[in-house]
Design a protein that fits this description.
It is built from 13 helices and 25 strands. It has 480 residues and is α+β, with helices and mostly antiparallel strands.
């Protein structure tokens, strides 16, 4: 490890270049930058037009500092390479106090930076602080500090969160403050001020008439709901995202809360009234749908034996998915009726993991339908594909998405399914459809397509009758 004392070390940069067409960095070169307003930062040079840049005709471009973060060359006064220097030999000298990058002189534009710190001393940059770095291999770099925990983080320096891990950094020093860092500092000041305000929150006697326990207000709303829905419970009411009583800006409020950036709490305050009675009436209306969908007479109309519901679903699926055998999926998905927080619920337990999922089904028929959907998906999974045909197509755009795959699969049972995939430059998705046997009852291929396109409609998935009808290979693949 290097021997010199980084705390007293001065870095002198003596080979600055002006922003001129004939004197720009190499493409992708990482540089220390002096901005026109006198601040210092860093970035990787990316010209806007590589041909013009290569022919030394332009300075147009940007210095990339991180993911979605750049500095225009128009804002830069001078640049100094960081990539071309490695002061390892100097850092191995115990009494080294100043390192020159380039030859200093009377007519040489020089900038001296000092104030290096080290993680080993327990020093950490502030959140979003942009820093100059000396790496443990002697290279120079720069990046914005991204905190991952109280004592963990990295310096982001390029797109896609490319970073220098703290384990590879020997010493660091903050460069100039910028808009991103100042916004983070302002946010931190606001957070600290909010903590101070919320240390001793006040309660509006009109709004919090019944105290600061939220369940009191749910119980009063429940009394009203029971007049119309005698089966209502607080558990049913809280199936709709529940409300809380929390401190906000120094006072207790009704609110919904969620986790924000870096563990911060987002408070969505209720502002539709000013009294406890108004909030209670609001709770009745807000939770009414959840309560309506929890009527046990509708939900468990076939009784409390889960086998009855599963048998109905299995019988319905078996009509078209004739090869399906429940014994082959045992352990993959299990269902039960369990008491959860005092209420009976349909639950689903995948892979015998013990982590149950409540099936939010307001009626017995709806639960049976949910089971059918699971059974159908599993039925296709256990039926191996024996042959495939990729339907040919040109460029097909579907509501802003580009068609990426349209494949017909023949399964071992002799049945067919369709896989459709589409995406854009950001994301994508795929769907699988079973071609039901009634489609193959059609006497002609054209009549088959009419039935088929009710399952995989052309306006939704890119290929309609006009495109599919002339495809003789597809026709033969489907047995016509």
């Amino acid at each position: 490890m290097f021997k010199c004392d980084y705390r007293n070390l001065i870095l002198s940069f003596n080979e600055f270049h002006n922003i001129e067409p004939k004197d720009m960095p190499q493409y992708g070169e990482f540089c220390l930058l002096e901005l026109k307003d006198g601040r210092y930062t860093g970035g990787e040079w990316n010209p806007d037009n590589y041909t013009d840049y290569k022919n030394k005709k332009t300075t147009a471009g940007k210095f990339v500092r991180g993911t979605g973060e750049t500095i225009s060359s128009e804002d830069v006064a001078k640049w100094h390479s960081l990539d071309r220097y490695n002061p390892s030999n100097c850092l191995e000298v115990e009494d080294m106090q100043k390192i020159n990058f380039g030859v200093p002189g009377e007519d040489v534009y020089s900038v001296q930076l000092k104030g290096l710190k080290s993680f080993k001393d327990g020093d950490f940059p502030k959140s979003e602080q942009y820093c100059l770095l000396i790496m443990k291999n002697g290279d120079l770099g720069a990046g914005r500090w991204e905190r991952y925990g109280k004592k963990d983080g990295a310096f982001i320096y390029a797109p896609a969160l490319a970073s220098h891990s703290m384990e590879k950094v020997w010493a660091w020093m903050p460069l100039s403050s910028d808009e991103i860092f100042e916004a983070e500092e302002e946010s931190e000041r606001e957070r600290i001020e909010e903590e101070k305000l919320n240390a001793n929150p006040t309660a509006d006697p009109k709004l919090l008439k019944y105290g600061t326990e939220i369940d009191i207000y749910y119980e009063k709303a429940l009394e009203k709901l029971k007049q119309k829905y005698p089966w209502a419970t607080i558990t049913q009411m809280k199936k709709t995202e529940p409300w809380e009583i929390v401190p906000n800006h120094g006072k207790y409020v009704f609110a919904k809360t969620s986790e924000g950036y870096r563990g911060s709490k987002i408070v969505d305050e209720w502002k539709d009234g000013s009294s406890a009675e108004e909030f209670i009436d609001f709770l009745c209306e807000y939770t009414k749908e959840s309560v309506e969908n929890s009527n046990p007479e509708e939900k468990f109309k076939y009784g409390m034996d889960i086998k009855i519901y599963l048998d109905k679903a299995y019988k319905n699926v078996k009509r078209d998915y004739h090869w399906f055998d429940r014994r082959k999926i045992k352990g993959r998905v299990d269902y039960d009726i369990r008491r959860i927080d005092g209420d009976w619920e349909f639950v689903r337990d995948y892979n015998s993991s013990g982590i149950y999922h409540i099936c939010e089904c307001g009626s017995a028929e709806r639960f049976v339908e949910c089971v059918e959907n699971d059974y159908k998906e599993l039925a296709l999974m256990i039926n191996p594909v024996v042959a495939s045909y990729d339907v040919p197509y040109g460029h097909v755009e579907i509501h802003g998405w580009n068609l990426e795959k349209y494949r017909i699969d023949k399964m071992r049972s002799g049945d067919y399914k369709v896989e459709v995939q589409a995406g854009n430059r950001v994301t994508g998705g795929n769907r699988t459809f079973f071609i039901t046997p009634d489609c193959f009852e059609a006497k002609t291929y054209e009549e088959f397509l009419d039935r088929y396109l009710e399952i995989v409609p052309g306006q939704s998935f890119g290929l309609g009758k006009k495109e599919l009808l002339p495809d003789k290979k597809l026709k033969a693949f489907l047995g016509y």
